[in-house]
Write a structure and sequence with these properties.
heterodimer; A: mainly alpha; two-stranded antiparallel ribbon; 61% helix; 2% strand; B: alpha+beta; six-stranded antiparallel beta sheet; 22 strands
């Protein structure tokens, strides 16, 4: 690790901490129904939305109604996204002619399974991309469905988090808010203005925004190169701010048109973290004790910084086998040293490690490098960030409600140890809350483990429908041994955790993987949201207990460590066997000189 | 319970929240209980019963699978049966050990119930028939509403209320206390319990419960656990450990395909066998807490019982741990029952000695504790000896509620002591004038929490006796401990606010409710509950019943009325209101024990992973040997050592589960830090040397 690299990571964290409070306070005002400084400008737009949709903003919903609205909204979003993709050939803004007879020869067909996978992916705020942006979908699809989903799926996550916060904040109430209002407000007052600013900034730094046809350029060697174009900046900003991660181009944020400079790189990772970090402050403000919000922020920060430095340390240390061959692997003035494979020279090792940690900690999934090329340990952390439930800031809203789920578990066990029925923020944690928290944890771990298990052994006839020319599901892997296993594990982990980043190294666009990863994303999203809303409803109905010195304190350093420890222990106990057969053994073998 | 007098050892430090040792408490292990528990451990193998405990049920299912495979292997004389046999045996031991823990807790209760049941022989009763004559019927024929007559030597045939007469009753069956108590009609001492014995006199009792529903029946049922429902907290914890079990089931089941891939990719080793996978599963699922959970609950109830408190449900005991406001009656709880004379304050012109002498004389016939204390004080302070006075030389004036004073007419003197106003009136009626000083002294005493008793001799005013409430020894310290636990104490008293404030300050309670009527008590509880507090209180009178019912924890005194006992959710057989503090501590201890063992159980898993995972894949990926940080001898001995450790730790923790973890009153933060270190970090570390040592033994014995 170089001082410069360490400084980059710490400076970034300082920026996150600085932005969390003002943004969090803005969201707290917004979701408690107060006027914000944006109201004079945006209130008409908000009212217009209600008018068009026939929403009565003063009507509150019980948790079941809230969940019903959310599910129906997501279902129709899914249907719409699926259909538009399939019909793109008949729709406008399609200069490359995808889905028509004049599509370029290297285009990928938008098959039913691919459209299913993509629709599930964008509705679940995952943005796993089995398709390649520049060779599969038209500008219309990118803008009218994918970008729109980037906004609304992020807002759905925020809505769930807000409903859960209300569960803690209210007492003896039977409603948790109005889904349509929360959704609209999150889009209009949070994501829209932030994305507008972000897109303008990115444009100013060289990110493209056009509807041009692809450029055919002649290279110095005289070969023809097709340079993809498109309305990139507008999608780029929300891709990050909404922790979506679905790149306009297949290369995602390592593509110079998406992420041209070290400055844009810094701002892009900042954009990933601001809403999740801000929501911790919103939480504290809304439950009436800001120390509670900072405690959540503290636990997230602790896990984030540990992860970031492990990745950076592992990547900067590089591969000892190269050093043994006499190759210079330490950083010098002339070269970055360490493991530069799969990384962009303009970002370097620290900024790349930071991006990888941030994008997997928050369930963003944008990448500025190929995680497949990381060292075993460098790849282990992104994997573990996702397996621990995407709670290290996490997705917009999803990170907060995921972390609160762990807080419920931590408080339950620790609360017993202080000799009282466990309570969190004055609410008793009882059978129902524990049941829902366990259901949510089971949903993700079962999805990851069962699909990974099935894919490690399932065989298909060669050239059958399910897996095409690959035959067995392991035939899609680029690498063998433990690294190949990590590729499967990473794919399902990324899907079920709603991250969407790719380890790469696995050709996932086959009906088998499109279907299983698609299902993993839906399970990982909605089988957590529903239990969490049930918890919100159950908590809201409870009386708030008085806080005394006999109450477990949930704002101090001890609780921060306890919460972070719970996240790590639950994740580690669940996935240790799988990880030991993947990155852990790969690392041990690397030390012995065997690579994959 | 006749065998156990369960009052706390008087030599114990009264300031300890939980006495270390209860006099005559049953020992943790005795041969009779052990025998019964061992037998029951096998009875409990019945899967239909065991399935209520998901964790141990999974272990049993695993043991059954390995047994079947073992039989198949033996039949086909396959290799490696020795190892599989040992694994199978230890899996069955794991189930048995868990069963044993529960059986131990239950057997202790059953032994207690048996001794109770012995006293519950079917007695005969003299029932008063409709025509007024008595008839002899069997006690089991009595119904609520019947009238029965009991005389000296009779066993009271059922629970009821004395409607006529007064008698001394031996209640040692219920309370273990051999001193007889008085039961009389009317008032708050009218309740009698079936099974107790009348020692003297004759009483008419109105039966209030039907056979099978009596106090004794309820006690037996509670002790035997027949009515033992899982408490809300236990249910939640069960869900947690069942959920964890499912997570680990997934982790282990999917390890099969993962290893299939790995074996194929590495081209070496073999997929772990079923016995090893089951071993890993059993080691990972929280068997420690799963096996001990119900024992902890039963033992907690039992501990309450050993303090001679009868809790109507486990839920009530848990609620006691949650309490954050404690309503304590002043008299009998915070102060010793009676006020005592503390000083004599004469008015100007009167010597202290003169006042003391007059006060002593006027109190000689006063048999109230206050009166006696005046005599004692005069003797201690001025060496005045109380004289025996006969009715011939003196005319005693007893206290009456109307005159509010008492005294003696002797040698022409009219000595009186009583309420200030009454004495002033008396003096003025006799043509005397009362110095203004008297009232000043009286007011000052009131302000300081004392009760002034004015003394006069005919038309002369002599002075004032200061009767003080005496705070019980050690009370201040106990109240301070409660504060550290985050519990607010509220003193309830009929005194005026001035007096109440002074005593509250002296005892160190957080607040007080003065001039409290039963309705005030009820409203106070409701107000506290509305602001999110859980309230506990004690009570004995019928007029306490609504408040007892409203409180989250209502501890009724056994000497109290039936209505009070019905309304509360606990009855203290010793009728000691201070017991509430112990009950709170037991409730907390119960919850802490559960949390501590859960944490310990989960923390143990880390070491087990380090034992089993490298053992499983040593052949496939020799590099994973780096994870074998304990340096276990062979894959087989590693797996065996982990399974043995997992089984033995259950047995090792049985005493802890039955006794409860050590509880020291402290704030939540301090408790959490301590218990996390002890059971979290401890649970993380302990298995490493444990498994290592077992591996050494297994290796030396050549078992694997």
């Amino acid at each position: 690790m170089t001082p410069n690299g360490i400084l980059q990571i710490l400076a970034f964290f300082g920026l996150v901490a600085a932005v969390a409070k003002p943004l969090g306070a803005h969201m707290a005002r917004l979701f408690t129904g107060e006027r914000t400084f944006l109201h004079p400008l945006l209130r008409p737009l908000e009212r217009l939305c209600y008018k068009l949709a026939g929403v009565r903003e003063d009507v509150e919903q019980r948790w079941t109604q809230y969940a019903g609205s959310l599910l129906s909204f997501s279902f129709f979003s899914f249907l719409f996204t699926y259909l538009i993709q399939r019909l793109q050939g008949w729709l406008p803004w399609n200069p490359a002619g995808f889905g028509t007879g004049r599509a370029p020869s290297n285009a990928t067909a938008m098959t039913a399974d691919l459209a299913f996978n993509t629709a599930a992916s964008f509705v679940a705020n995952t943005n796993w991309q089995s398709y390649m942006g520049e060779t599969t979908v038209s500008y219309f699809v990118q803008m009218a469905v994918l970008t729109v989903q980037n906004f609304v799926s992020a807002a759905v996550g925020v809505a769930v988090a807000v409903a859960l916060i209300r569960g803690f904040a209210r007492q003896e109430a039977n409603s948790v808010g109005n889904f349509w209002v929360d959704l609209t407000r999150a889009v209009v007052y949070v994501f829209l203005p932030l994305s507008l600013l972000g897109a303008l900034f990115l444009c100013s730094q060289g990110v493209i925004q056009n509807w041009s046809a692809y450029t055919h350029a002649t290279t110095l060697e005289g070969a023809t190169q097709v340079i993809a174009q498109g309305p990139v900046a507008s999608q780029e900003a929300i891709k990050l701010i909404g922790t979506n991660g679905g790149g306009f181009f297949n290369a995602n944020s390592s593509h110079p048109f998406e992420n041209p400079t070290p400055l844009t790189n810094l701002i892009e990772i900042l954009m990933i973290f601001i809403v999740p970090a801000g929501l911790t402050y919103t939480f504290g403000r809304m439950v009436g004790d800001q120390r509670q919000g900072w405690a959540i922020f503290g636990a997230m920060s602790l896990l984030f910084l540990i992860g970031a430095f492990i990745v950076y340390g592992a990547e900067q240390a590089g591969n000892p086998n190269l050093a043994r061959l006499g190759v210079e692997t330490s950083a010098t003035d002339a070269q970055p040293g360490g493991n530069m494979e799969g990384k962009e020279v303009r970002f370097g090792i620290a900024a790349t490690s930071l991006f990888a940690t941030v994008t997997t900690a928050a369930s963003c999934g944008a990448v500025n490098s190929m995680h497949d090329s990381f060292t075993a340990l460098g790849g282990l952390i992104p994997l573990f960030n996702m397996q621990s439930g995407e709670v290290i800031f996490g997705g917009t809203g999803a990170g907060l409600y995921g972390m609160l789920l762990f807080a419920i578990l931590a408080v339950f066990i620790a609360g017993l140890m202080v000799g009282r029925t466990p309570e969190y923020l004055g609410k008793k944690i009882e059978g129902k809350e524990v049941k829902m928290a366990m259901l949510a944890i089971l949903a993700t771990s079962a999805t990851i483990l069962l699909f990974t298990g099935a894919s490690s052994v399932i065989e298909f006839a060669k050239d059958s429908y399910w897996n095409g020319s690959h035959g067995a599901a392991t035939g899609n892997l680029n690498n063998g041994g433990p690294h190949g296993f990590s590729e499967i594990l990473y794919a399902f982990t990324s899907g079920a955790a709603n991250n969407g980043s790719a380890f790469a190294g696995i050709s996932a666009n086959t009906p088998w993987y499109n279907l299983t990863i698609g299902l993993a994303m839906l399970f990982g999203r909605f089988l957590i949201i529903i239990p969490m809303l049930a918890v919100a409803g159950s908590l809201a109905a409870k009386k708030k207990l008085a806080i005394t010195s006999g109450t477990l304190p949930t704002h101090g350093a001890l609780f921060v460590i306890l919460l972070a420890g719970t996240v790590v222990i639950v994740g580690a106990l669940t996935f240790f066997p799988a990880l030991s057969l993947g990155p852990i053994v790969e690392h041990l073998l690397m030390l012995q000189g065997r690579l994959f | 319970m006749t065998t156990s007098t369960l009052t706390p050892d008087p030599s114990a430090d009264p300031t300890e929240l939980l006495p270390k040792k209860l006099a005559h408490a049953r020992p943790l292990f005795d041969s009779e209980i052990l025998r019964r528990a061992v037998w029951d451990s096998f009875v409990k193998l019945n899967p239909a019963k065991l399935c209520k405990n998901p964790v141990i049920f999974v272990v049993e299912a695993g043991a059954a699978v390995t047994t079947i495979l073992l039989i198949r292997d033996i039949a086909t004389s396959a290799a490696g049966t020795g190892f599989n046999l040992q694994i199978t045996l230890w899996l069955w031991f794991t189930v048995l050990f868990a069963n044993f823990a529960e059986a131990m807790a239950e057997a202790r209760g059953k032994a207690q119930a048996d001794s109770l049941r012995k006293t519950k022989s079917d007695s005969v009763a003299q029932r008063v028939a409709a025509n007024g004559r008595t008839e002899t019927v069997s006690a089991s024929q009595l119904r609520a509403g019947d009238l029965v007559i009991c005389e000296a030597g009779d066993t009271i045939p059922g629970d009821g209320e004395v409607v006529e007469g007064i008698a001394t009753v031996d209640e040692s069956v219920i309370t273990g206390e051999s001193a007889p108590v008085i039961r009389e009609s009317g008032g708050d001492r009218s309740a009698v319990t079936g099974g107790t014995r009348v020692l003297s006199d004759r009483i008419t009792i109105k039966i209030t419960s039907n056979p099978g529903e009596t106090f004794l029946d309820r006690m037996i049922a509670l002790i035997e656990g027949a009515q033992r429902h899982k408490t809300p907290n236990e249910v939640a914890l069960n869900i947690l450990i069942a959920g964890l079990t499912l997570v680990f089931l997934l982790a282990v089941v999917t390890l099969q395909p993962f290893s299939q891939y790995s074996v194929a990719a590495a081209g070496a080793g073999s997929v772990p066998g079923v016995a090893v996978l089951v071993s890993l599963l059993v080691c990972l699922i929280p068997t420690t807490i799963g096996g001990l959970l119900s024992a902890i609950g039963i033992a907690g109830m039992d501990r309450v019982m050993q303090h001679n408190v009868l809790a109507m449900s486990g839920k009530a005991v848990e609620a006691a741990g949650d309490v954050n406001t404690l309503l304590l009656d002043k008299t009998g709880t915070i102060t010793i029952g009676n006020r005592q004379a503390a000083e004599f304050i004469p008015v100007k012109g009167v010597t202290e000695l003169e006042l003391a002498e007059a006060a002593q004389l006027s109190s000689l016939a006063d048999e109230t504790p206050e009166g006696r204390s005046v005599v004692v004080l005069a003797k201690e302070k001025y060496g005045l000896r109380g004289r025996e006075l006969s009715h011939h030389e003196a005319g005693f004036i007893p206290f009456s509620a109307h005159t509010r004073m008492s005294g003696v007419d002797i040698n022409g003197s009219q000595l009186r002591k009583g309420a200030t106003d009454s004495i002033i009136q008396f003096v003025e009626e006799h043509g005397g004038t009362v110095p203004g000083e008297l009232r000043e002294i009286a007011d000052r005493i009131s302000r300081q929490g004392g009760t002034p008793l004015a003394v006069s001799n005919g038309r002369r005013t002599l002075g004032v006796i200061n009767l003080k409430d005496v705070v019980k020894g050690g009370m201040k310290k106990r109240l301070a401990q409660l504060r550290r636990m985050g519990i607010t104490t509220v003193m309830i008293t009929g005194d005026n606010p001035l007096t109440a404030a002074a005593i509250a300050a002296e005892a160190g309670v957080d607040s007080f409710l003065a001039q409290a009527s039963p309705a005030d008590k009820l409203n106070y509880i409701k107000k506290e509950q509305a602001s999110g507090h859980l309230v506990a209180m004690t009570g004995d009178g019928t007029n306490d019943a609504p408040a007892l019912a409203q409180a989250d924890v209502g501890l009724a005194m056994n000497t109290g009325t039936m209505a009070a006992k019905e309304a509360g959710n606990m009855v203290d057989l010793d009728s000691n209101p201070t017991k509430l503090i112990e009950v709170v501590a037991i409730g907390k201890q119960l919850l802490i024990t559960r949390g501590a063992l859960t944490t310990f159980s989960v923390a143990n898993d880390v070491a087990k992973y380090f034992a089993i995972i490298p053992a499983m894949f040593m052949a496939t990926y020799p590099a994973l040997g780096a994870l074998n940080i304990m340096g276990l001898h062979s894959p087989k001995s590693a797996v065996l050592a982990a399974v043995i450790f997992n089984a033995l730790i259950i047995i090792a923790l049985v005493p802890l589960a039955l006794r409860g973890v050590k509880y020291r009153p402290a704030g939540a933060g301090a408790l959490l830090r301590r218990n996390l270190l002890l059971y979290g970090l401890g649970g993380l570390i302990v298995p490493f040397p444990g498994i290592w040592a077992i591996d050494q033994i297994v290796h030396v014995l050549g078992l694997a």
